[in-house]
Amino acid sequence: MGCYGDFFEKAKPYIAMTSLQFGYAGMNVITKVSLNHGMSHYVLVVYRHAFATISIAPFALILERKVRPKMTWSVFLQIFVLALLGPVIDQNFYYAGLKFTGPTFACAMSNILPAMTFVMAVIFRMEKVDLKKVRCQAKVAGTLVTVAGAMMMTLYKGPLMKMAWTSGHGHAQGHGAEAPAAVAAAIDPSGREWFLGSLFVIIATLAWASLFILQAHTLKQYAAPLSLTTLICFVGTLQAIVVTFAMEHRPSVWTIGFDMNLLAAAYAGIVTSSIAYYVQGLVIQKTGPVFASAFSPLMMIIVAVMGSFILAEKIFLGGVLGAVLIVIGLYSVLWGKHKETQEKEEEEAMELPVASKANGSGIIYDDAVFIKEIAAVPAAGVGDECRKANGVVYKSSSSHGHGAAGAV
């Protein structure tokens, strides 16, 4: 059972980040449907983070009431910037890009996230790059291959791929199933909207990478992930309200009913804001920002499959080849990160003090390290070598001129 427990403990970050990608993929598809039905993406951001705040605040108040650090102006400023980067800049620009393009394309473009995060982590000295080491070469090469795969999906279409689960779309549409086709309305790839959509997604991805970096720093000062998530969502809601009032002047845009718009806001808020921010924070705290961002390419593959089911999106050869490259790059980055973790564990193990026994008198460590267990009090006759004072045995060191102490 011990082996299985250790394996599960090491697998937790991988399972968590993979699960998040399924959550993000569902958000992309549902949100695309909502935006196509006329919902303002500014209003969607407000409702999304209102749902997120309400859903996670009770857990933060109860579970972290005894461990919540003191709020300082420095931490509050970081939370303000995190809310600006995530809920406001990232999501508004991403939703705008999603509306102008499509879920699969938007996800493909956002796969530059690992590259952006890796470069920023190197700039801020959160990641060390030694190209003489194979693990560093793997991370750099994996990042480049991931970006190449995303670019292939964007720039090269190739022939249409006929999937087994999409073969019935034409037959279904012939019998009046026009809704999927209407939802997946075609957009001219050479048009102005397509270009703007691409630009918006790139800006959103840059903001998201910045959030990864800053969140890793903030968690060191404010080690309460649930409370931090709640505050980011709450401050982000307030900021998004201000932005919405500035950009939307029609009161009717705030109207929401029991429809796809409500589902999109609730799903995005509960799953991909509150839960995702919290889980993402835990993973970043344990493994670092590059590891967390390296899973984003999986979302694109999931969205491509879900989009072909739900939105009747077409899958082309370029998308398949790009997806293969992205998976190769992803595992290259993860392998490099795994080797780095192994090296750190080995270095920490080598730094532990080495124990030795001396004539049955107890366990003796190097100088200046407390002896945690003494099997027996040293025999009489040791003289000046050992003396007992206040329940502590001190062993003098002839080579260093200071003593090593151990509790009796």
Automatic annotation (TrEMBL):
Alphabetized InterPro entries for the sequence: EamA_dom, EmrE-like, WAT1-related
Annotated protein name in UniProt: WAT1-related protein
Keyword Transmembrane carried by entry: yes
Membrane topology label: Multi-pass membrane protein
Transmembrane spans: 42-63, 75-94, 100-124, 136-156, 194-214, 226-247, 253-278, 290-309, 315-334
Localization annotation: Membrane
The UniProt record lists the keyword Transmembrane helix: yes
Keywords in alphabetical order: Membrane, Transmembrane, Transmembrane helix
Domain annotation EamA: ranges: 21-154, 196-334
Annotated GO MF terms: transmembrane transporter activity
Family: Belongs to the drug/metabolite transporter (DMT) superfamily. Plant drug/metabolite exporter (P-DME) (TC 2.A.7.4) family.
Main location as per UniProt: membrane
